[in-house]
Amino acid sequence: MFSDLPLLDKSALFELLTQRFPTQDKKLSHIPDPSLLQDATKAAKRVALAIQEKKKITVVGDYDVDGVSSTAIMVDFFRQIPYPLEVIIPNRFNDGYGVSPSVLERIDTDLIITVDNGITAIEAAKICKERAIDLIITDHHTPAQTLPDAYAIIDPKLSTCQYPFKDICGAEVAWLLLALLKKELQLTIDMKQFLDILAIAIIADVMPLVDINRTLVIEGLKVLATSKRPASIIIRDFLNKSTLSAEDIAFNIAPRINSAGRLEDASIALEFFTATSVHEAYKQFELLGKLNELRKTTEAECTKDAIESANDTHAIIIVAQEEWHEGVVGIVAARLVEYFGKPSIVLSCKDGMAKGSARSIGDVNIYELIKENESYLTKFGGHKMAAGLGLLEEHIDAFRVAMNETASKLSADDFLPKDSIAGVLSCEDIDSELLDMLESFEPFGEANLRPKFLLKNAEIISIKLMGSDKSHSRIEIKQFPHARKNIELIAFRTVFEMPENRKITCSYTISKNEFNNKISPQLLINKIY
């Protein structure tokens, strides 16, 4: 199974990681001109005119981290003009997704700007037309055949859009539009000040960390480390590290911010980002922490049920149940992908309707798969690796059959996960020099994954359980019989028992552990074989 993996030393690993970046890193000044985004200049002129004529402007956001971040950047920018702005983030449970007819019932305005949503809002665009509201859509999701009849549509994925880098998140689209608005209004606002929130959005929305995304995250993490924004001060205090990484955001910050929209209302997360005092930001962050704990419990229960009800002979796992918590179905779908190694769709049913989320693996484009079977659906949207959908409960079985039928035409290679193992590294090479080298290739994330290494048949010296509930394992091993030093591996959320042969084969990653101002390598188990 692992016979073809290379033996790596530091220089071989350096070569391997360098190949990921065929071109030099871009500087902020290299970010393509925002006016290359279709309709962006037209939209900026329209917003500038509304401000000059003192018209009412409303921003409609979305309840995930990207949507909340996009909205927060808008709020902060308009505060600095200063100009009043009405802000609505739809509630997942009462409003559904995006700028919908039900959301429009609450809005009395002259101009609506959507952020991180709107590309499928055909009905809402029609209502805006009838009510003489100009609608500016800013989104990054894949457009359908028919586009909303809006005043302007800014989406890099439009086939006619000339913007050279397509894989940007909703917050980036909003930020680029604001850069053009700044120019129209001849303001002196520094666009770099928003990079702390922008970096969080790029990481949380799992954008590929290459090209301009890599640049914006590198610079954004620097801004996050020094920003006087109350939310950024709280994040720094919470993480308590000298340098912040993309993984700190992905694992410790994004889930907290997401939990508000998943379980209650995203306005809590928006108030955290836009808080004007550290006290206010702290209060919201505490609330997000409590919601995140509740999210973990809800998600664990739902995942257990979903695994039990799944048919693992199917190429696409599709599970549905009454009253599963709508806010966690996306995470549960991701857990099923991890567990079964297959694309998964999790649906929550209520009153004859099913709503849910899809997550993918490898090269399987889940959006295209769903699109081929959209005749069964009432709505859907998303991109290659993740999508949202709705259908009548009575159509679930037929949809499951159809999806698996479509998936049977794909190559088996499409289903292979992208988390390949770099090679076998001698434990003698794991030192502070290696940590520095790995750090030079950060930020790690989508399309630039932290390298994984293999330990094969390593001898287990001891196993200790850690954590308040003893749910994590610390495993001391000797890699080779002749190894001079033993090393420790940590397996989070795993109670590992001593196997009979006292051996372990696993993949692991190496990261920096900071404790009491002392820095050391930390080896985290990725998968036990």
Describe the structure.
This protein folds into 3 domains: 7-12 and 419-528, OB fold (Dihydrolipoamide Acetyltransferase, E2P), CATH 2.40.50; 31-287, inorganic pyrophosphatase (n-terminal core), CATH 3.90.1640; 310-415, Diaminopimelate Epimerase, Chain A, domain 1 (Roll), CATH 3.10.310. 38% of the residues lie in helices and 21% in strands. The chain is an alpha/beta fold and 529 residues long. It has helices at residues 10-18, 40-52, 65-80, 101-104, 122-130, 170-184, 195-204, 211-226, 230-239, 246-263, 267-274, 278-309, 329-340, 366-372, 396-407, 432-439; strands spanning 7-8, 57-60, 86-88, 111-115, 134-138, 152-154, 317-322, 344-350, 353-359, 377-382, 386-392, 421-425, 452-466, 472-478, 487-491, 503-515, 518-528. The strands form 3 sheets. A 5-stranded mixed beta barrel has the order 13-14-15-17-16. The protein has a 5-stranded parallel sheet with strand order 3-2-4-5-6, sandwiched between helices. The protein has a 5-stranded mixed sheet with strand order 7-8-9-11-10, sandwiched between helices. It is globular, with a radius of gyration of 24 Å.
